[in-house]
Amino acid sequence: MSMKESTLHEKLNNRSNHITRKKLEMSQLNRNRLKLAIVGAGKMGEAMISGFLKSGQYEPRDIQAFEIIESRRKYISQTYNVKCVNDAKEAASFADLTIIAVKPRHMKKALEQVTPAMKTGKIVVSIAAGVTLEFIRKHLPKDIPVVRVMPNITCQVREAMIAICPSENTNKEELETVTETLSLLGHVIKLDERYLNLATGMVGSGPAYIYLIIEAFADAGVRMGLPKDVSILLAAQTTLGAAKMVVETGEHPAKLKDMVATPAGTTVEGLLALEEGKLRAVIITAVTKAAQRAKQLQPS
Q1: pLDDT (mean) for 221-229
Q2: Boundary residue ending a domain (170, 199, 228)
Q3: CATH number at residue 280
Q4: Is 112 domain-assigned?
Q5: How far apart, in whole angstroms, are the C-alpha atoms of residue 219 and residue 197?
Q6: Do 193 and 284 have their domain in common?
Q7: Measured distance CA(61)–CA(57) in Å, rounded
Q8: How many domains does the chain have?
Q9: If we measure between CA atoms, which residue out of 295, 99, 282 comes closest to residue 199?
Q10: For residue 119, is pLDDT > 60?
Q11: What is the pLDDT of residues 39-58, one digit of tens each?
Q12: Cystine design at 204: which of 139, 200, 232, 270 (Cβ 3.0–4.6 Å)?
């Protein structure tokens, strides 16, 4: 066997071993996956269901949802082949991990409904904006671990930014389990609870602000004569690429901005217009107001 053939053979063996390891890892994950209950199948609940199924780690039989609106139950069941019931206790009884995805004002009732199903070994995750761990634990059995989470709608495409904060009675293994499960939907970061409302202003509400910016980009393209669909694609992909550079390079956005803005070039003129329009101040104000609103959502 020649040296070239030997090298190729070694590469093929390495690739085969890599694939085998991946299959073993996938098999292990499949064996250890938690059964999930999504209590509240609204926009965020649906986004999480979609993301979990797209991950390939979950099948419809591993998930149950609860929803009070009959038409919505039918939609979730037909779209995702997931059992969607009108009894929160039933969904929580099925699951190892119960994700409460209702509006803050409905949180107390949802917790009261799932409480009879809570027993040792179960974990509760709350994605309700502004609702504290103290409030959640007050309405659940004392030994049930709780993780407060702030995800966003991009769970649907498994690119979410997800901030989490565990209760004091959540042990390391339980937190790792929740983190690994939520990591199927995006990037997970642990924060102190005092930062969760701030994260709501950025993480939870943030996609809406970015969509508005993309829409404005696209409108500019249409104004200059581009077809609407082309303009939206150019705007969205440009935004995606810029965000990916920040994440993957680790460089400060200001440095990356300066890489684009050459002296006396087109970008400098555009940046001047944005600064004159106070875009930076407007975005800061928007995030601040959303975070302040999150604090007001705590139910009594």
Answers
A1: 97
A2: 199
A3: 1.10.3730.10
A4: yes
A5: 32
A6: no
A7: 12
A8: 2
A9: 295
A10: yes
A11: 999 999 999 999 999 999 99
A12: 200
Residues 134-152 have pLDDT tens digits of 999 999 999 999 999 999 9
User: Same structural domain for residues 253 and 268?
Assistant: yes
137-141: list long-range contacts, CB under 8 Å, 24+ apart.
137/167, 137/169, 139/108, 139/111, 139/112, 139/115, 140/111, 140/114, 140/115, 141/115
Give the CATH number for residue 180: 3.40.50.720
Beta bridge mates, 100: 39, 126
Res. 22: pLDDT tops 70: no
Distance CA 288, CA 181 (A): 30
Q: Both tokens of residue 236?
A: 């969205």
Would you say 73 and 92 are in contact if contact means Cβ atoms under 8 Å apart? no
Of 154, 179, 199, the one marking the end of a domain is: 199
In this structure, are strands 97-100 and 123-126 parallel, antiparallel, or unpaired? parallel
Task: Dump pLDDT digits (tens) for 93-118.
Answer: 999 999 999 999 999 999 999 999 99
Q: How is residue 276 written in tokens?
A: 């004159």
Mean of all residue pLDDT scores within the chain? 91
Is residue 141 one of the residues assigned to a domain?
A: yes
| Residue 298: per-residue pLDDT | 82
In SS3 terms, the chain reads as CCHHHHHHHHHHHHHHHHHHHHHHHHHHHHHHCCCEEEECCCHHHHHHHHHHHHCCCCCHHHEEEECCCHHHHHHHHHHHCCEEECCHHHHHHHCCEEEECCCHHHHHHHHHHHHHHCCCCCEEEECCCCCCHHHHHHCCCCCCCEEEEECCHHHHHCCEEEEEEECCCCCHHHHHHHHHHHHHHEEEEECCHHHHHHHHHHHHCHHHHHHHHHHHHHHHHHHCCCCHHHHHHHHHHHHHHHHHHHHHHCCCHHHHHHHHCCCCCHHHHHHHHHHHCCHHHHHHHHHHHHHHHHHHCCCC
Are residues 226 and 195 part of one domain? no
The whole domain housing 246 covers 206-296
